[in-house]
Design the sequence.
């Protein structure tokens, strides 16, 4: 029960942060969303506490499902790469809300 | 053998470019050899047994390269290849290679390719292969019709032909699959010969199949593309509209008629559309003033007639249809080519301006008149023979006159009257004396283009084709012997016995024919004046309807794109989140969701404590106004998640998450130097509330989904057999790691590519210009030089520079004010230890928590430390290579470890292991997937190096430049 609540709160916060223009806050939102998604995948794969999926430490019956863990591990690294790319985008302007087009000088209204 | 000939067409199409470039237009004559040879070979199969060739292609799909040369296929191949060869030969005299309006090289290649595709289409015995050839002809027809690339009319016509026929082709594909799956075979011969088909699926399949035929053969309501396609050069029109492309639809109907002609959907579509097309095309043709357009509408009319006859379903009608099919190919190509010769000689095709061509070019006129006579059905040409047979077959409709068959017979007679009328209009318009106002010289009445006599090829080829029609008319009994081998298979509907011949006595068909000639001549006489304005018969114009439809589609696409994508990220994301809220939310609220009967608060007290911490940090992070505070709070959620992973039995995840979170912190802080301390202000309270409401809604839905998802495990976990397999195949005891480097290593390979792309993206965003990057390379070169220098230089022990200043490599190059001695000492002490730990993680990862990712990030953190202690100089001293080199090497090693097992004849990425005994260390378990993990390790280090160099040193340099300019500004 506590995990679904955490997932819900993380998602809500992520969406609140992502729905505005500043790039850095969007990145923070994305980070929260990634946490929520990772927890969701992990908790959907394993319904309750299980042992570590290392046959040397835990018996096969008690070990957690390793497949969601492998997925989440991949997701963590990809999230890092994407975050870094978005951060680079955030710093190429003068502030992280790029209202001015860098090349043309064209400005958006609002 | 068929495959070889198709291959030769393909080869010729490829070689057409160089051939036409070196030989000029004589190259077309060389190209003509390929279809000519094919025709000669196919002719040998005319009377022999049916030849079948099958070669396997895609076994899983049941797709095979199967060809079946029965009589219908042989006759069609003869038309396609024989006329193809003649048209190419004609091109050798017609095309002007100096013209810049289109590319003759492309024309030659596309024409030969088209002939090859048509050859495949009419000989294949596989439904899917038929579709492949069908679409090749569609695409090549686009190139051929749009030959004049600079003309808007031409490109528009080409697009129209492409859209109409490709839409029909796709529809046909659905029909083909329905028929093939329904019958359990994709062989056309088995399908057609199979037991009488019925049922809704078959009816749908046949209907969709016929849509393909109707679009390709330009039947009502898709007839409009054919006259538009007259924008193509005349030889192309002759080939596409007399022998090849539009005949594909007729062929399709003829091919499937033995199997499906008695189905109601077939009868309605074939007879109604065929009749309507015959009348509409014929009527329009009697009102044209452009010779080519006249022929185009005539072709539309004739196609309606052919489809009606070959799809009628009785043996007699099929015999008449095939005879007329052969006849039409001969006379229509002859007429088109004669028109091309007239156009070439006078510069116009307008019958209001042409005069005296008949006198100036009598042989051409003979060709035109003979061909037009065949078209009108006058004795003793093949058109007459076919029309007589058709009348005999149709005039006794089995179900009586008040039926589809009766209507078809009446339409056929009326259409024949119109055919006579427009044949006369063509002959008189093209070769007649013309209007009395014209001058004495032949040619265009008032044009600037002077008459020049058409060459021997331009006259000879139309004449040969017209004489072919004459010869077949005289020898029609022999033709019947050939065609009967196919028509005897068409027996779904009863019909009278009909034979081909010039004289059957004073029979009803002959009487009707005479009436048709008289009425046709009368019709021509009434509409003979080309100057008279012509009003359209019906107000509905299919071409305009098409235009309106296309504009509508364009507009709808534009409007919906503009509506959905309005350049605002919040609106776009908001749309996505609203969908996320509504669809699963409704499913949860309305659908039969099984809610868990019992909810457990938590697995342990620690879990509750960590989760509460994460929740609090997340809530506070959304409210933070200072960037640094937000960084801190988001970091707390990350570390909290790592704790939750650990509590959930996922030590690998926890380790990686902690390392990633640390890296993120460092990178964020590096980036925040460039930004203001506070977030920009929110626009208004209202939008804040909206955002909060949407966030709360989606959060609720996702939370509920999580409740359902965690409690609805009904299947055995997918990872059930993995522990055993990971030891057996992967030779490792850390299952998660074995999954990453062995069992699902392709996923990891994809992930490496993502990482590589992101790293490259970061570097290109920050460095932007090549010169800036060159500066970095120069710095690295000097760093490499300096390393060599340090090794050689003895440590200075005299006064002045004390060894204390050498805790890090580039201490002397740093600004003393910005140095931190403690950091330098710590860096010096732990750097190598951390690196050693990272190597340990890499090696141990196969059996213990760790692995390439974690190890790479640890090594990256060690580099971070060097960077923080001594900025970019120190980083250069620590690892003086470009990040791209590390990234590339990593991906190369990972891909190599996938390829090596393949070279040894095993599946890609297969793992071997071996035990080695090393003195002092003991026994070491080596696995080959370690090589793959090494690739992962290097890619992650490359990413870290790239980030530090771009977002670290790159931004350092930018800040320094800006300070300098700002300083100069104030001074």
Sequence:
């Amino acid at each position: 029960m506590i995990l679904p609540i955490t997932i819900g709160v993380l998602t809500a916060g992520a969406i609140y942060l992502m729905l505005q223009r500043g790039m850095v806050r969007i990145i923070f939102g994305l980070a929260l969303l990634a946490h929520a998604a990772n927890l969701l995948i992990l908790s959907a794969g394993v319904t309750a506490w299980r042992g570590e999926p290392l046959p040397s430490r835990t018996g096969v019956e008690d070990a957690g499902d390793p497949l969601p863990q492998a997925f989440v591990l991949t997701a963590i690294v990809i999230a890092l790469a994407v975050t870094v790319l978005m951060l680079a985008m955030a710093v190429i302007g003068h502030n992280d809300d790029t209202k001015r087009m860098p090349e043309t000088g064209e400005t958006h209204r609002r | 053998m068929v495959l070889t000939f198709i291959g030769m067409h393909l080869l010729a199409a490829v070689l057409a470019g160089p051939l036409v470039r070196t030989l000029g237009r004589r190259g077309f004559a060389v190209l003509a050899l390929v279809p000519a040879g094919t025709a000669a070979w196919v002719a040998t199969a005319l009377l022999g047994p049916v030849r079948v060739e099958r070669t396997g292609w895609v076994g899983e799909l049941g797709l095979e390269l199967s060809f079946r040369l029965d009589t219908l296929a042989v006759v069609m191949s003869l038309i396609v290849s024989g006329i193809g060869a003649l048209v190419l030969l004609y091109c050798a005299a017609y095309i002007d290679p100096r013209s810049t309006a289109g590319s003759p090289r492309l024309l030659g290649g596309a024409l030969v390719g088209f002939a090859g595709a048509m050859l495949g289409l009419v000989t294949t015995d596989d439904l899917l292969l038929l579709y492949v050839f069908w679409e090749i002809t569609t695409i090549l027809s686009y190139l051929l019709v749009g030959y004049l690339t600079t003309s808007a009319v031409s490109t528009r016509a080409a697009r129209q032909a492409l859209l109409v026929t490709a839409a029909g082709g796709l529809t046909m594909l659905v029909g083909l699959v329905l028929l093939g799956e329904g019958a359990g075979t994709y062989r056309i011969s088995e399908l057609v010969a199979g037991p009488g088909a019925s049922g809704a699926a078959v009816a749908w399949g046949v209907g969709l199949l016929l849509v393909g035929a109707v679009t390709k053969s330009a039947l009502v309501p898709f007839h409009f593309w054919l006259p538009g396609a007259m924008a193509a050069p005349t030889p192309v029109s002759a080939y596409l509209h007399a022998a090849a492309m539009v005949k594909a639809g007729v062929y399709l109907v003829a091919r499937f008629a033995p199997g499906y002609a008695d189905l109601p959907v077939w009868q309605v579509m074939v007879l109604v559309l065929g009749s309507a097309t015959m009348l509409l095309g014929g009527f329009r043709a009697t009102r044209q003033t452009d010779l080519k357009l006249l022929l185009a509408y005539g072709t539309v009319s004739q196609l309606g007639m052919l489809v009606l006859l070959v799809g009628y379903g009785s043996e007699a009608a099929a015999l008449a249809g095939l005879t007329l099919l052969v006849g039409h190919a001969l006379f229509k190509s002859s007429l088109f080519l004669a028109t091309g010769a007239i156009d070439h000689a006078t510069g116009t095709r307008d019958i209001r301006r042409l005069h005296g061509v008949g006198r100036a070019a009598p042989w051409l006129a003979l060709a035109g008149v003979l061909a037009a006579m065949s078209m009108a059905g006058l004795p003793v040409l093949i058109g007459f023979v076919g029309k007589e047979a058709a009348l005999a077959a149709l005039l006794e409709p089995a179900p009586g006159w008040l039926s589809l068959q009766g209507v078809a017979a009446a339409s056929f007679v009326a259409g024949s009257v119109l055919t006579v009328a427009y044949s006369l209009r063509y002959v008189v318009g093209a070769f007649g004396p013309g209007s009395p106002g014209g001058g004495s010289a032949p040619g265009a009445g008032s044009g600037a283009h002077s008459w020049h006599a058409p060459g021997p090829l331009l006259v000879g080829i139309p004449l040969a084709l017209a004489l072919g029609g004459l010869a077949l008319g005289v020898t029609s009994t022999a033709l019947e012997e050939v065609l009967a081998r196919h028509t005897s298979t068409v027996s779904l509907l009863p019909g009278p016995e009909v034979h081909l011949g010039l004289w059957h006595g004073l029979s009803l068909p002959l009487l009707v024919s005479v009436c048709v000639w008289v009425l046709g001549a009368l019709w021509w006489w009434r509409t003979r004046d080309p100057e008279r304005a012509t009003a359209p018969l019906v107000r509905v114009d299919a071409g305009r309807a098409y235009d309106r439809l296309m504009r509508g589609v364009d507009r709808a696409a534009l409007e919906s794109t503009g509506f959905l994508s309005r350049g605002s990220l919040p609106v776009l994301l908001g749309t996505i989140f609203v969908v996320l809220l509504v669809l699963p939310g409704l499913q949860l609220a309305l659908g039969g969701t099984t809610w868990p009967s019992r909810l457990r608060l938590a697995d342990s007290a620690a879990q509750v404590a960590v989760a509460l911490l994460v929740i609090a940090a997340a809530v506070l992070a959304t409210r933070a106004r200072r960037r640094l505070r937000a960084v801190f709070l988001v970091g707390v959620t990350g570390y909290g998640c790592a704790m939750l992973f650990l509590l959930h039995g996922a030590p690998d995840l926890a380790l990686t998450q902690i390392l990633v979170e640390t890296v993120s912190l460092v990178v964020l802080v590096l980036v925040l130097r460039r930004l203001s301390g506070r977030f920009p202000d929110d626009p208004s309270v209202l939008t804040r509330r909206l955002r909060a409401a949407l966030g709360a809604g989606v959060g609720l839905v996702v939370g509920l989904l999580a409740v359902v998802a965690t409690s609805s495990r009904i299947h055995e976990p997918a990872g059930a057999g993995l522990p055993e397999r990971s030891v057996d195949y992967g030779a490792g005891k850390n299952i998660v790691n074995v999954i990453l480097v062995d069992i699902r290593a392709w996923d990891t390979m994809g992930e490496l590519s993502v990482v590589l792309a992101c790293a490259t993206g970061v570097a290109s965003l920050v460095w932007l210009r090549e010169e800036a990057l060159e500066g970095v390379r120069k710095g690295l070169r000097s760093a490499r030089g300096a390393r060599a220098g340090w090794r050689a230089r003895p440590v200075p022990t005299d006064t002045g520079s004390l060894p204390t200043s050498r805790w890090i490599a580039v201490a002397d190059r740093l600004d003393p004010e910005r140095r931190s001695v403690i950091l330098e000492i710590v860096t010096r002490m732990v750097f190598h230890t951390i690196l050693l730990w990272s190597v340990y993680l890499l090696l141990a990862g196969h059996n213990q928590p760790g692995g390439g990712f974690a190890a790479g990030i640890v090594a990256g953190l060690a580099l971070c430390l060097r960077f923080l202690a001594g900025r970019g100089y120190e980083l250069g001293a620590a690892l003086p290579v470009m990040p791209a080199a590390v990234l590339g090497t990593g991906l190369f090693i990972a891909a190599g470890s996938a390829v090596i097992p393949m070279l040894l004849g095993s599946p890609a990425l297969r793992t071997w292991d071996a035990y080695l005994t090393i003195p002092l260390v003991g026994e070491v378990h080596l696995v080959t997937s370690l090589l793959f993990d090494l690739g992962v390790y290097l890619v992650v280090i490359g990413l870290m190096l790239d980030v530090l160099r771009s977002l670290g040193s790159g931004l350092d340099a930018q800040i320094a430049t800006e300070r300098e300019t700002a300083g100069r500004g104030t001074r």
Chain A has one domain: 3-49+65-94. Residues 3-49+65-94 of chain A form one domain.
